[in-house]
Amino acid sequence: MWPNSVPELREVIGELSSAIDAQQAILHDLLAKRSEALRKLNFFLDPLARLPLELQSNILLSVDSDNYPPKPIPKSPPMVFLGVCRLWRDIALATPQLWVKIHMDSLPRGSNYAKLCNLWLERARTLPLSISLHGSLKLDESVQNLLARYSAKLSDLKLSLSPNVSLDARFPYVLWRRGGQSLPALKKLSITASQEDPYCGDMREWLGIMRDAPNLSSCVMFNMEYEEQDDDFAASDPLTLPSLETLKLGDAQSMFLFGGHGSSAAILRHLTLPALKALTLSSLDEISMEEMTAFLHRSSMPLESFNTAVPLEFHSMVQHLRLLPSLVTLHLHGRPDDEPDGDPFLLILDELRTVSDFLPNLRELEIYTTSPVRFDYDMVLGMLRFRFTSCPTPLERFEIDFPQRMNSDHAGDLPNEEVRAGLRQLVEEGLKIHIGHSENLL
Fold this sequence. Notes:
Blueprint: H1 6-45, H2 53-61, H3 86-93, E1 101-105, H4 111-122, E2 129-135, H5 141-149, E3 154-161, E4 188-192, E5 199-201, H6 203-211, E6 218-222, E7 224-226, H7 231-234, E8 239-240, E9 246-249, H8 252-258, E10 271-272, E11 278-281, H9 289-299, E12 305-309, H10 317-322, E13 329-333, H11 346-354, E14 364-368, H12 377-389, E15 397-401, H13 406-409, H14 417-428, E16 432-436
Parallel strand pairs: 1-2, 2-3, 3-4, 4-6, 5-7, 6-9, 8-10, 9-11, 11-12, 12-13, 13-14, 14-15, 15-16
Helix pairs in contact: 11-12, 12-14
Protein name: F-box domain-containing protein
Organism: Favolaschia claudopus
């Protein structure tokens, strides 16, 4: 029977509440003990649980891929690890290397998306960050804030621009400039627009990014174009990047096969690159011979690899190459639509055949052309013999490559049997030779 007075009911309720609290404490203790028992059982049943933390982390890290930057979605690593079990969650949160890479969309995704990306990057703790960004350069405000917040830790930045970027979506140079931030840790920068819709911007913006990244070692720009510059900017002193070792301005092979937009080579007028080791230019036609020569002279770089399409004024190529005695690998691409007055490779091959101190360290020479019929293969054989047997640094690999569709159409215009015999002899002596497309036609 329940009491009939208010004071007595209150007393009963108090007693019941105390009993409930005691039972809840017992239940909480039992749940904790069960959780600990399950953890110990998992330790015996799950091989991962018996490994040291370092090995546990390495197993999760092996799921990561450099080719596919992870996205902040539940079914993508490392997010998916958080929902497997408590052990995997603890390992993932204790492994900051899992969170150093992220692929973000620049389109508006709301505040929750920004909070998730921020939490992701916080889990990387003090490690350098790699951010891949896809979409319009008219960035969502929250994405801009994230880039500004983590600018000091940003080591690798990839910007992939969507087609049909509106004219008012100029490059947001202010991304990390809010409050005067720079990019002291940035080592790799890649900016890519679509071939169908190249991005045209102010060259001063690109140079401004480079100036803010004094430790930049690799820079890639595909399908970028520049607006006309005023006379004061054209006369300004070149920017020196003391650590830049790799510079790719366009895709020389795509330019060779499909044509397309320039290589942004005009930016070389405003750069000095004393540490440059690898240079790719899809075209040399955007920069004059005098400007290219001035760039090579003032940089005096230890260039080892040069990949470019032969310019329309191809006679200047030999003079440019004379300024690159450290060159080890040379890739030259012919043009698909032009008909220059003479063989664009003849001067270079003849110089290699007769002058031992022309590119004295050259070990690999690759030529991509749509016109194999224009080659003097007797000269090619003579050049290879001279470079392989008579030079202090012998040539190790030589290749002439052309589209597959030309193999059958022009097979009769390829090296005759006497030349092929000479080439085969060089192959037997150790020189790697390939002439053709997918099959060696020697």
